[in-house]
């Protein structure tokens, strides 16, 4: 009877229905799991910190002059779009700006809020510092004399300034009215890496300074000028003070000496030169039995001696 049942068409229909249901529920389970995986996927966020981003100050440049603020800020960028982030990191393709709006500010010092504007969608930014202190005042211009001051530490040891020639005698300075009243003159500034041991000629920056040398915020027009600086070496001619030391041989009555030169040139600061009246040398006659020449090194405090050595000719007198 069972054999007849298994051979009947209804049995095969029931088996087919069973496998069809099994495949259906398996497919639903796979579809559900796949859908769940897609929903739980974590979106990646990219970030980058930009330093030295210029600050764009919005103000009436025709009427006011601003000073005292930092010219750059740090910006922290985040985005879920790597391409857009890379575009903003690149200065050539950057769209955003850091802006401080002083359009409604008049005279005085104010704390201007920094804002990042022009960011593309899918991007966020924070700026540091949040604010900058800005001094704003009515713009004014005035003509000032140009002077050149060469710091002592930029003149090589043993040299002094002989002459300074400046191409411009006057320039125009623009600042706010209050700062303009504090300006004494415009200074031609020798590059800080120049130590003068020879003449200098070149273009140098100009800066407005007060009577005590304090640099004041301003625009100098023109911003540079040509200067020529002549230096000279400080020298002095002094005699040689030679001392004879050692033990005279018992085979000799005397030893005479003669210097290859009687004077030498010394160089140094004026104070050092003034303190030196002669240079010293010592010749040792121990063991000398016949006529000969010796090289003697000369010495003096703080100065340079030229030449540093001389020749001393020794002439012996036998017993």
Q: Could you explain how this protein is built, in words?
A:
- The chain has 319 residues and is of the alpha+beta class.
- The chain is built from five helices and 20 strands.
- The strands form three sheets. Strands 1, 2, 3, 4, 5, 6, 7, 8, 9, 10, 11, 12 and 13 form a 13-stranded mixed sheet that branches.
- Strand 4 and strand 5 form a beta hairpin.
- It is elongated, with a radius of gyration of 44 Å.
- It starts with a helix and ends with a strand.
Helix-strand blueprint:
Blueprint: H1 2-6, H2 9-39, E1 46-58, E2 64-67, E3 72-79, H3 82-89, E4 97-101, E5 108-117, E6 123-128, E7 131-148, E8 159-166, E9 170-176, H4 177-182, E10 185-189, E11 200-209, E12 219-221, E13 224-233, E14 235-245, E15 252-259, E16 263-267, H5 270-274, E17 279-284, E18 292-297, E19 304-306, E20 309-318
Parallel strand pairs: 1-4, 7-10, 14-17
Antiparallel strand pairs: 1-3, 2-7, 3-6, 4-5, 5-7, 7-9, 8-13, 9-12, 10-11, 11-13, 14-16, 15-20, 16-19, 18-20
């Amino acid at each position: 009877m069972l054999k007849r049942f298994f051979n009947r068409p209804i049995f095969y229909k029931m088996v087919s229905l069973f496998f069809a249901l099994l495949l259906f529920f398996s497919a639903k389970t796979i579809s559900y799991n796949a859908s769940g995986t897609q929903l739980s996927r974590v979106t990646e966020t990219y970030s980058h910190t930009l330093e030295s981003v210029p600050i764009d100050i919005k103000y009436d440049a025709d009427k006011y002059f601003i000073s005292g603020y930092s010219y750059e800020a740090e910006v922290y960028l985040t985005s879920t779009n790597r391409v857009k982030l890379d575009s903003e990191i690149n200065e050539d393709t950057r769209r955003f700006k850091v802006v401080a709006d002083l359009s409604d500010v008049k005279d005085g010092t104010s704390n201007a809020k920094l804002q990042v504007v022009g960011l593309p969608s899918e991007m966020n930014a924070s700026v540091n510092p949040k604010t900058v202190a800005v001094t704003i005042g009515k713009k004014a211009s005035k003509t000032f004399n140009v002077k050149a001051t060469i710091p002592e530490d930029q003149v090589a040891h043993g040299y002094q300034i002989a002459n300074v020639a400046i191409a411009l005698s006057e320039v125009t300075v623009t600042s706010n009215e209050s700062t303009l009243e504090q300006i004494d003159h415009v200074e031609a500034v020798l590059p800080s890496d120049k130590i003068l041991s020879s003449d200098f000629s070149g273009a140098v920056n100009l800066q407005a300074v007060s009577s005590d040398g304090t640099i004041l915020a301003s625009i100098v027009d023109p911003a540079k000028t040509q200067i020529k600086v002549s230096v000279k070496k400080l020298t002095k001619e002094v005699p040689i003070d030679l001392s004879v030391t050692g033990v005279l041989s018992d085979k000799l009555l005397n030893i005479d000496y003669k210097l290859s030169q009687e004077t030498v040139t010394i160089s140094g600061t004026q104070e050092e030169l003034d303190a030196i009246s002669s240079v010293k040398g010592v010749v040792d006659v121990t063991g000398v039995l016949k006529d000969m020449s010796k090289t003697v090194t000369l010495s003096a405090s703080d100065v340079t001696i030229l030449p540093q050595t001389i020749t001393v000719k020794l002439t012996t007198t036998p017993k």
